[in-house]
Amino acid sequence: MKRTDNLSRGAAPRTAPAVLSGVFVAGTDTGVGKTTVAVGLLRLLRRAGRAPVPFKPVETGCAPEPLDAVRLRHAADAPAALDEICPFALALPAAPAAAARVAGLVLDVADLAARAKTLSGRGDCLVVEGAGGLLSPYGPGQTNADLAAQLALPVLLVARVSLGTINHVALTVAELTRRHLTLAALVLVRTTPEREPHEDWNDRLIAATAGVAPIGTIPWMSATERDDDERAADAVGRIFSDAALRRLFGKSG
């Protein structure tokens, strides 16, 4: 199988801001609601007069458009082309490393970080959404955690409301701690409409087991509601106050 260099789509320019303002949105798994949270944050920032820049370095399962990246770009009114916001839109619905290999590409976290830093100059803060869970691989020994470390961004951890989430959160928080990555906050997202008996215990057991309590839960939203930037912002805004946004993203100007 022919493999091409990861810079075949054009190397990122070397000039970049030294310090980034923003967050890295990571999940405990795939399909946990990262995009909903990121879209809501981007729209809240726009409401506050900010100029957020979204970055989805790799999206898999694209047929052919990267639909998550399309949503992020729309929510942010981003002054950047879709292929800048998502430079690697890959067809195979799999981990980035596998999807890239099938496409004949080699992904490199340092290159992805350079692209993010350059793109951040288009606005005043950056919202990066990783692909899959925290340890989803981009290549040998390179994961979302490594990308977050390269960018030196605090991690906004997203987990689904489901049986097993206590274990998933605890393991992910332990890995963040092991890597000395800053945890900005933990958000839960309800991904199904039905409420289950275990949910009454989630917050307190996550706090007891992982050492961090969720700051809130995004309620279940239909596909139509999730696709509405303003509804996503309203849902996320019930968790993130203006003061919380300033703590995460700093002040504009």
Determine the fraction of residues in helical runs and give it as a percent range. 25-40%
Strand content: 15-25%
Largest sheet: 6 strands, parallel
Question: Any low-confidence stretches, pLDDT <50, length ≥5?
Answer: 1-18
Q: Which strand order does the major sheet show?
A: 2-5-1-8-9-10
- Roughly what is the average pLDDT, rounded to an integer? 90
**Oligomeric form of this entry?**
single chain
Shape: globular
List SSEs in N-to-C order. Answer: EHEEHHEHHEEEHEHEHEHHH
Number of strands: 10
Descriptive account of the structure:
With 253 residues, the protein is an alpha/beta fold. Helices cover 40% and strands 17% of the residues. The protein contains eleven helices and ten strands. It has helices spanning 34-47, 67-76, 82-85, 96-102, 109-119, 144-151, 165-178, 199-210, 223-226, 229-237, 242-249; strands at 22-27, 52-55, 58-59, 88-89, 125-133, 137-139, 142-143, 155-160, 183-189, 216-218. It has a six-stranded parallel beta sheet with strand order 2-5-1-8-9-10, sandwiched between helices. Strands 3-4 form a two-stranded parallel sheet. Helix 7 (165-178) links the parallel strand 8 (155-160) and strand 9 (183-189). The relative contact order is 0.19.
